[in-house]
Design goal:
Layout lengths: L2 H15 L15 E5 L7 E7 L2 E13 L9 E8 L14 H16 L9 E3 L2 E13 L4 H15 L1 E6 L2 E10 L7 E8 L2 E4 L3 H6 L2 E7 L4 E7 L6 H26 L1
Parallel strand pairs: 4-6
Antiparallel strand pairs: 1-2, 2-3, 3-6, 5-6, 7-8, 9-10, 9-11, 11-12
Helix pairs in contact: 2-3, 3-5
Length: 261
């Protein structure tokens, strides 16, 4: 970390210690959210999410694949993520970075553990099934990629339409039926800076955080958790944050449902 980054980090830590945030939010406030669906014509489903200045694009592609031997009567969902160089000076082109791999796994785990897609409905017969490929692209980074990407991926699969399938051939010119979405998952990401905990950290706040916790939920059950960085959360803090994540789900769900219309 360079001298300028250290100065910025120290400033954020001092600000947070006084109970303040650089953008004027309270500790558990979320930045403005905008979700736009159907943004990619050639994808079966797509969504762009603006979470403050963080911008993420997700596309869902539905393709015919061989079934897996351990799930012979089910389809599958695969999530990948790419941190585009245009999103941040820190991102580089090339193979997926550890940060991109972690982002994809966290989004995938929440949707998969939440049983958001009924995988049995994707089975086509004769050893074939649909696989839903969700590609997440970070267009602009200003913190909290996990929540923005989960919103984008969830909105994209809810926007998706399945191609017509006849005589072993998928007709991508005829996409009418929606995926059978049986549950909706969101995530809430918390940053611990000193003794303070903030929801939906900005890019500057992430540069100063000691620990990060992402909690995926459907509003009733905690579906997944991911802890990052070397700092720690107490059991009492995790319990409290889980309750906040459950409460915030209705807020995120409202935006997802609004974009679906």
């Amino acid at each position: 970390m360079g001298a300028l980054e250290i100065i910025k980090s120290d400033y954020i830590r001092e600000l947070v210690a006084k109970g303040e945030r650089g953008d004027g939010r309270k500790d558990m406030d979320v930045r403005d959210i905008k979700i736009t669906t159907g943004t990619i014509d050639h994808a079966e489903g797509s969504a762009q999410v603006d979470l403050g200045n963080t911008r993420v694009l997700a596309g869902a592609k539905i393709m015919v694949d061989d079934v897996h031997s351990d799930t012979p009567d089910q389809g599958n969902i695969v999530v990948s993520a790419e941190l585009l160089p245009l999103a941040s000076a820190e991102y580089e082109s090339g193979p997926p970075s550890p940060e991109a791999i972690e982002l994809a796994r966290v989004v995938d785990r929440g949707i998969r553990a939440g049983n958001c897609i009924k995988l049995e409905d994707l089975f086509l017969g004769e050893g074939k099934a649909w696989t839903v490929y969700v590609d997440v692209y970070v267009l602009n980074y200003d913190g909290n990629l996990f929540d923005a990407s989960t919103l984008a991926a969830m909105s994209a699969i809810m926007n998706a339409r399945i191609p017509e399938y006849k005589d072993g051939v998928a007709n991508y010119e005829n996409r009418k039926e929606p995926l059978n979405i049986t549950n909706v998952v969101s995530s809430a990401t918390f940053a611990k800076i000193g003794n303070s905990i903030l929801l939906d950290p900005s890019g500057e706040e992430e540069s100063a955080m000691d620990a990060r916790l992402t909690i995926a939920t459907d509003g009733n059950v905690i579906r997944a958790m991911q802890k990052g960085l070397s700092g720690s959360f107490t059991i009492e803090e995790v319990d409290k944050l889980a309750g906040i994540a459950l409460e915030k789900h209705q807020f995120y769900l409202k935006h997802i449902e609004k974009a679906k219309r």
